[in-house]
Write a sequence for this structure.
C-alpha cells in the first residue's frame, strides 16, 4: 500500500503518554529509578523529568492533534504505525466528506484515540483485549497499536489489513451518523437474543461494505493499492470472522452466536462496497 505521501489527519488523540490512568499512577519509586537511570547511564535528565512530570510542551508529536497526556515515548515501529493510521484516517475523512456531500449533507469525522493497555470512553473502561472499537457515545475510534501483533498472529498481517480494520471502525461511525446504529439498537431491545445477534451481524457486514467504499474512493483519488493489498484485507476479514474465531477457540461453529458474520460474508460485503463505491450497495438489512 502506498501511503507515505498521503495527508495526515488532525483527528488523532494520543493518550499513550502521561495523564492516562497507568501513567498517573507513576510513583516516587519510579521517579527515583528513572533519575538514577539517567545519572548512571548518561541519559538526558531533562527528558526524564519531562516524561515523569508531564513536561511543558504538551507532548503531542502530532501537529494539531489534541492530546490529553504527557510526552509519548514510542518505538520506531510504533511511530510508523501511528503515521500510517493517521494517513488512513485522513483518507476516510476525504472519502466520507465527498460521499456525504454528494448526498447533500455534511460529514463530521470521528477522533481516533491511540491508547495503551486500557482506556476510558463513553462506553466504559475497555482493555486492549477487546480489540479496536468504536464508541457511538463519544464518536471516537479506539485503537491500541499492539493489536497489530495480534493480527499478525491471526495470519492477518500487512499494512492494508490494518487499514481495513481502521476503515471498518470508521464505518461504524458512519452508521452512527446516518442513524443506522440507533435504529438497530432500538430494534435489538425489542427482539430475542438470537434476532439481536442477527442484527449485530448485519451491522458488522455493513461496516465491512463501508470499508470497501473507502477503498474504492481512495484508489480513485490516489491509486494507493499495491499488488496483494486486497488479498490482505480479505485475509483480515476472514481471520476476524466469527466462524474462524469460534473454530479456533472451540473447534466448532455455532451460527446463532455470530455477531460479526462468517468469513465468506465479510469478504462478500467488503467486495460489494469496493466494487460500487456507493452507499446504496451496503444495505445489509434487506
Ligand atoms: Zn465492527
Amino acid at each position: 500500500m502506498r501511503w507515505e505521501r498521503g495527508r495526515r489527519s488532525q483527528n488523532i488523540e494520543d493518550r499513550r503518554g502521561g495523564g492516562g490512568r497507568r501513567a498517573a499512577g507513576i510513583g516516587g519509586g519510579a521517579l527515583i529509578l528513572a533519575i538514577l537511570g539517567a545519572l548512571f547511564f548518561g541519559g538526558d535528565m531533562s527528558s526524564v523529568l519531562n516524561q515523569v512530570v508531564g513536561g511543558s510542551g504538551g507532548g503531542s508529536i502530532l501537529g494539531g492533534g489534541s492530546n490529553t497526556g504527557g510526552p509519548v515515548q514510542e518505538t520506531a515501529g510504533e511511530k510508523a504505525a501511528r503515521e500510517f493510521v493517521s494517513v488512513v484516517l485522513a483518507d476516510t475523512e476525504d472519502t466520507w466528506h465527498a460521499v456525504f456531500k454528494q448526498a447533500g449533507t455534511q460529514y463530521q469525522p470521528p477522533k481516533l484515540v491511540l491508547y495503551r493497555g486500557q482506556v476510558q470512553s463513553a462506553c466504559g473502561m475497555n482493555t486492549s483485549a477487546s480489540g479496536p472499537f468504536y464508541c457511538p457515545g463519544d464518536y471516537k475510534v479506539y485503537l491500541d497499536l499492539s493489536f497489530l501483533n495480534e493480527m499478525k498472529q491471526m495470519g492477518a498481517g500487512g499494512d492494508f489489513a490494518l487499514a481495513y480494520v481502521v476503515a471498518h471502525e470508521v464505518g461504524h461511525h458512519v452508521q452512527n451518523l446516518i442513524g443506522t446504529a440507533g435504529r438497530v439498537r432500538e430494534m435489538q431491545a425489542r427482539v430475542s437474543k438470537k434476532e439481536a445477534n442477527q442484527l449485530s451481524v448485519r451491522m458488522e457486514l455493513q461496516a465491512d461494505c463501508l470499508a470497501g467504499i473507502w477503498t474504492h474512493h481512495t484508489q480513485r483519488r490516489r491509486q494507493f493499492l499495491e499488488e496483494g493489498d486486497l488479498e490482505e484485507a480479505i485475509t483480515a476479514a476472514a481471520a476476524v470472522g466469527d466462524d474462524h474465531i469460534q473454530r479456533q477457540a472451540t473447534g466448532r461453529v455455532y451460527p446463532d452466536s455470530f455477531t460479526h458474520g462468517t468469513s465468506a460474508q465479510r469478504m462478500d460485503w467488503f467486495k460489494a462496497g469496493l466494487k460500487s463505491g456507493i452507499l446504496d450497495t451496503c444495505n445489509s438489512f434487506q
Summary: Confidence is low (pLDDT under 50) at residues 19-67. Residues 168, 172, 204, 207 surround zinc ion (CB under 6 Å). The CA atoms of residues 243 and 255 lie 8 Å apart. The chain has one domain: 12-16+75-282.
